[in-house]
Amino acid sequence: VLIQCLEDNRIEKILLFNRNPINIKNQKIKEILFNDLNDLGEYKDEFINYDACFHCIGISVVGASSKYYKKVIFDITERFVDLVYLGNKNAVFNFITGEGTDSSEKGPIMWARIKGKAENYILNKGFRDSYMFRAGIIIPEKGIKSRTKIYNFFYLLMRPLYPILKLFPFITTTTKLGDAMINTVFLGHKKKILNNLLINKISKST
């Protein structure tokens, strides 16, 4: 998403909140590192007048307790939602969630309930618009690597098949995901929960 924002002339400024340095130098970027939710309140004035938030922070559910998973997926999201809304109620808030997310928050799968809770909080906040990117299979491009080792192993095995996999409309790429996020801000879309089919379609919108 960040790479596509850097390459898109419609994006003028990027306020990047991260837990670890991104190590990309670009005049568009202002990077702020945080380690604790309580630190974010110090930066509330930084959020003023930004037109959109692309919220991409997350972790794999593999090996994560429900308490820690909730902290990363819901608690951090809730804090960012509140700060972005305080800075500009007319913003668009985009959230990378996942295929199979449980909007009812009552299903048997822990990660799906928590992501559903985060989605509902965003959708009900009152932003000008918000979109839930329920991505399924994502093929990495432009040197992107996952921090989850098992994912990188899977990608390594599947790399020879990338040219074929990219032809399937239910599989997306990191490039298309970034482009779709940007296009929802400038062009909008009637549906607010987006799967890979819609992500691919919106990424090509002009």
Question: Could you walk me through the main structural features you see in this protein, from its secondary elements to its overall organization?
Answer:
The two termini are 18 Å apart. The radius of gyration is 17 Å and the shape is globular. It is of the alpha/beta class. α3 links the parallel β4 and β5. The chain has a 4-stranded parallel sheet with strand order 3-4-5-8, with helices on both faces. The chain has helices spanning 2-7, 66-87, 110-123, 149-158, 162-165, 174-187, 196-203, and strands spanning 14-18, 29-33, 52-55, 92-96, 129-133, 138-139, 172-173, 193-194.
Can you describe this structure in just a few lines?
The protein is of the alpha/beta class and 206 residues long. The protein is built from 7 helices and 8 strands, in the order αβββαβαββααβαβα.
* Helix count from the secondary structure assignment: 7
Widest sheet: strand ordering:
3-4-5-8
* Shape descriptor: globular
Number of strands: 8
* Beta-strand residue fraction: 5-15%
H-E string: HEEEHEHEEHHEHEH
The helix/strand class is alpha/beta
Helix content: 25-40%
What value does the Rg take, in angstroms?
Answer: 17 Å
List unreliable stretches of 5+ residues. none
Arithmetic mean of pLDDT: 92
- The termini sit apart by 18 Å
Q: Biggest sheet, in brief?
A: 4 strands, parallel
Strands, helices and their partners?
Blueprint: H1 2-7, E1 14-18, E2 29-33, E3 52-55, H2 66-87, E4 92-96, H3 110-123, E5 129-133, E6 138-139, H4 149-158, H5 162-165, E7 172-173, H6 174-187, E8 193-194, H7 196-203
Parallel strand pairs: 1-2, 3-4, 4-5, 5-8, 6-7
